[in-house]
Amino acid sequence: MTDEELKSQVDAYVDEVWEDVVSDMDLLIQVESVEDKDHAAPGMPFGPNPKEALVRALAIAKRLGLEAHDCEGYIGYADLPGESATQIATIAHADIVPVGTGWTFDPLHVTRKDGCLIGRGVADDKSPLVLSLYAAHFLKRLADEAGKPFPYTLRCLVGVNEETGMEDVEWYLKHYDQPAFLFTPDANFPLIFGEKGRIQAAISSADLGDNGVIVSLDGGTVANAVPGLAEAVVRADASSLSAEENIEIVPEGEGLTRIVAHGKGGHASLPEGTVNAIGLLVDYLLEHDLCSETERQALELEHAILSSTDGSTLGIASSDKHFGPLTCIGGTAHLTDGTLIQTIDSRYPTSITAEEIEEKLTQLTAPYGASVKIQSNMVPFLTDPETPEVQTLVRTYNELSGDNGKAFTIGGGTYARHFARAVAFGPDVEGAPRPAWLGYEHGADEGMPEEQLKLALKIYIVSLIRLMELDL
């Protein structure tokens, strides 16, 4: 088969199966597959909903003729056996961040509007997971028609803990061998060959006591997302306070007032254009003196933490030639037993170390009587962009898209960093035209242009066939 004949077959296949693809995307998006370890049990270590999403994904794979396996609920995989046990692999995930607020559309169903698909997981990462399974299905058709398998086994891994800990791949790599090469469809085209380091930390205030002005304070849902909503209940008369842009005043009765801040959420690795709701809330409390002196000290530290997204107000700003500038956001804030706990998420380049970041944070927080606890750290990683595998993927993307893109690095953390030879590969394209109302991953009205997802499926199919032709 010539290259042009292959591309023609791929075009016809995508047109043939596309409505089934969208239907299967919807089948997965219906599951609110947020980690829930409080209800973990044997066979579902991350809770019942991630397990249900895994079951549904593997059922799709089995229906498409792949050999599906559930690995004790930690992870799953679907194989297209090859002539050898050497594996080319994909990995996508069926878990999601919490739905959050601000949605215009039903987050737990796929909605079509103006050429876009909308729903939690359309971009990150349920739709790309479905694309990987259908790409394998096309390869199965070719193998069946030829009467012989491809040289290598194709394994489509189905993760269910990417958003919170990646314990799924850690478990997998303790029990299974590394693939010869892997890509994850959980980022952007043309290809990502490196990822920043990532530190997540919790900053705990000094004891604020129980006789202050602030009764409660809560913001955000996860550490790795800029929060779009935060609120506090304070001891104050609502009639003495005025609503402001993005600030809502709600009387709570008996001298109490609820102050609600509405920001603009987004992914921790891409904070440009976001508005941190916790920062809005903190600034309102400070400006209107809605705090005791002890609480003011904690809020002033909060202001320092939340006033920048490049780490400059924390003393950790840094940049290098591979990754560009460091990012740092405040993800969640909760007042618990008199202590205000603020989580931060920093994506850092090779020009600064985790130890240096921890030292700078300790220096910043100590005068406020606060403490820092590093909860997790992943060091930066790079994959050689000159390898035949990487060059094949970039070339295929450019051919099918008409683009002239080059491989690059990101601040986000994908599954790729856990594997010896891996990259992140689509399905989104930074800067591609999209409606202003369409949201991004981790935010409200998350979605993607439908044609971009169709193109991604074609790119994945042709890329996998070309990888099968390489000497691995």
Walk me through what this model shows.
It is elongated and about 75 Å long. The longest helix is centred in the N-terminal third of the chain and has 27 residues, at about 5-30. The chain is built from nine helices and 26 strands. The protein is of the alpha+beta class and about 475 residues long. β1 (about 65-70) and β2 form a beta hairpin. Helix content is about 30%, strand content about 25%. About 50% of the residues are buried.
Shape: elongated
Straight-line N-to-C gap: 22 Å
Query: What count of helical segments does DSSP give?
Result: 9
Q: Trace the largest sheet across and list its strands.
A: 14-15-13-11-19-20-10-21
Rg is 24 Å
Quaternary organisation of the protein chains = single chain
| Strand-residue proportion | 25-35%
Largest sheet: number of strands, sense, barrel closure: 8 strands, antiparallel
Mean pLDDT: 96
| Poorly predicted residue ranges | none
Query: Percentage of helical residues?
Result: 25-40%
Number of strands: 26
* Coarse structural class: alpha+beta
What is the topological layout?
Elements (H helix, E strand, L loop, with lengths): L2 H27 L18 H16 L3 E5 L3 E6 L6 E7 L17 E3 L2 E3 L7 H21 L6 E7 L7 H9 L5 E4 L2 E3 L2 E4 L1 E8 L9 E6 L5 E2 L2 E7 L11 E7 L2 E7 L3 E2 L9 H11 L5 H14 L12 E2 L3 E2 L1 E10 L2 E10 L5 H12 L5 E8 L2 E2 L5 H14 L6 E3 L11 E3 L2 E3 L17 E3 H19 L4
Parallel strand pairs: 3-6, 3-7, 7-24, 8-25, 9-23
Antiparallel strand pairs: 1-2, 2-6, 4-5, 5-26, 9-22, 10-20, 10-21, 11-13, 11-19, 12-16, 13-15, 14-15, 17-18, 19-20
Helix pairs in contact: 1-2, 1-3, 1-9, 3-9, 5-6, 8-9
